[in-house]
Specification:
binds magnesium ion, about 350 residues, alpha/beta
Length: about 350
C-alpha cells in the first residue's frame, strides 16, 4: 500500500513543495526571461550600455535560491543571476533600474556597470567585475555570521570557468576547514566566453573537487528544476545543521552569446545553438507541470501576459527615474569630508 501511495505522489509534493510553489517557481523563471529579453531590446536600442544574460540558467537559479530565507540568509551572485536575484527579492524594476544606471538604483546609485545588481535591503551583495570575487565575499559573510552565532546561510554562484580561479580554491578550502554554512553553486554552461569546457576544466567535473575541499559535492541537471531544488534544499539544511558547505554543479545551457559585446556565431556551430531550444528549462518545466496537471494553455497564457505587463510597467517606471546627480559623482570613492566646527 505504502509503495503504491508513494508512486502516485507528485514529485514536488514528495519534496515538500505545494502546487502553488511550483507554479510560482515557473512564474519566476518566466519573469526572469522576460526581463532579460526586454533588456536585450533596450541595449540594442541604445538605452542600456551592456547586457549579460541568464537565459538557459533560470531553472537552476530559481530552484537553488528557493530555500533561502529573505531578510535572513545572504546571496553573493554573479552577472548571470537575474533569476536568482528576483527569486531572493529583487524586483524586475530594480534589475532594469540598475542596468539603466539610474540615480536611485538600489544596487549602487548608478555607479556600477550594467549587470552588477544587488542591494543591501535584499542581503544581495553587489558583484565585482573580476570573476570569482563574490565567492570570497560569501565565505567571509558566512564566517562573520558563524562568529556572531547567527543562523545565516550564504549562497554564492559562479561559472565553471571561474571555478578555476585561484581564490575559488582558497575560499572553498577555508569553508571546508571551518565547516561554514555556504552553498556554492557552479552553473556549468560549457563555455567561458568562447572557451569550451574541455579547454578550461581539467577532468571536466567541478563537483568532484568537493571531496578535496572536505565538503559534499552534487551534480545536477540544470534543466531539472526539482532536482536542483532538492540539491539546494539539502545543502541549506546541511549548512544550518552545522554539517558544512556544499558544492552544487548544475549543468545548464547558455542560450545567448556571452554578452551583448559578443557574437557566439564566431565559435559555436549553428546546429549546436539550435539544439539548445530542446534544453530550455522553461519549456522543460512547463511540460512537466502540464504532465502533473498543474498547468494548462489558459493558465500559461495568463501567466505570460501577467509577466509581460509586469516587465512593461517595470521598464517604464525605471526609465522615468532620475539619472545620478553629477555633483555626487565621487560619492563612495573618497571619504566625504566632515566640516564640523
Ligand atoms: C579575473 C577575471 N578574468 C577574466 C575576466 C573576463 N571574463 C568575464 S566573464 C568570463 C568568463 C567566465 O566564464 P564562466 O565562469 O564559465 O561563467 P559564464 O560566463 O559562462 O556563466 C571571463 C573570462 C574577468 N571578468 N575577471
Ligand atoms: Mg561558463
Amino acid at each position: 500500500m505504502v509503495a503504491k501511495e508513494t508512486a502516485t505522489t507528485p514529485p514536488h509534493v514528495e519534496l515538500g513543495l505545494t502546487d502553488d510553489d511550483v507554479r510560482a517557481m515557473y512564474r519566476q523563471m518566466l519573469l526572469a526571461r522576460a526581463v532579460d529579453e526586454r533588456m536585450w531590446l533596450m541595449q540594442r536600442a541604445g538605452k542600456i550600455a551592456f547586457i549579460i544574460s541568464g537565459q538557459g540558467h533560470e531553472g537552476a537559479q530559481v530552484a537553488t535560491a528557493w530555500p533561502l530565507r529573505p531578510g535572513q540568509d545572504w546571496m553573493a551572485p554573479y552577472y548571470r543571476s537575474i533569476a536568482s536575484a528576483i527569486t531572493f527579492g529583487m524586483s524586475a524594476e530594480d534589475i532594469v533600474t540598475a542596468h539603466l544606471a539610474k540615480g536611485d538604483d538600489v544596487s549602487s546609485g548608478g555607479r556600477q556597470m550594467p549587470g552588477h545588481y544587488g542591494g543591501a535591503p535584499y542581503n544581495i551583495v553587489s558583484l565585482s567585475s573580476p570573476v570569482g570575487t563574490q565567492v570570497l565575499h560569501a565565505v567571509g559573510i558566512a564566517m562573520g555570521a558563524w562568529v556572531r552565532g547567527e543562523d545565516v546561510v550564504t549562497l554564492t554562484s559562479f561559472g565553471e570557468g571561474t571555478a578555476n580561479q585561484g581564490e575559488i580554491h582558497e575560499a572553498m578550502n577555508f569553508a571546508g576547514v571551518h565547516r561554514l554554512p555556504v552553498v556554492f553553486v557552479c552553473e556549468n554552461n560549457g563555455y567561458a566566453i568562447s572557451v569550451p569546457l574541455d579547454q578550461q576544466v581539467g577532468g571536466g567535473n567541478v563537483a568532484a573537487r568537493a571531496a578535496g575541499y572536505g565538503m559534499t559535492g552534487v551534480t545536477v541537471d540544470g534543466g531539472d528544476v526539482l532536482a536542483c531544488y532538492r540539491a539546494a534544499r539539502d545543502a541549506h539544511a546541511r549548512a544550518r545543521a552545522g554539517d558544512g558547505p556544499t558544492l552544487i554543479e548544475a549543468h545548464v545551457v547558455r542560450m545567448t552569446s556571452h554578452s551583448s559585446d559578443d557574437d557566439q556565431r564566431r565559435y559555436r556551430d549553428p546546429a549546436e545553438v539550435e539544439a539548445l531550444k530542446e534544453r530550455d528549462p522553461i519549456s522543460i518545466f512547463g511540460d512537466q507541470l502540464r504532465g502533473w496537471g498543474l498547468l494548462d494553455e489558459e493558465v500559461d497564457t495568463q501567466l505570460r501576459a501577467d509577466v509581460k505587463a509586469e516587465v512593461n510597467d517595470a521598464s517604464k517606471r525605471a526609465e522615468a527615474r532620475p539619472d545620478p546627480d553629477v555633483a555626487t559623482a565621487l560619492r563612495h570613492v573618497y571619504a566625504e569630508e566632515q566640516h564640523d566646527a
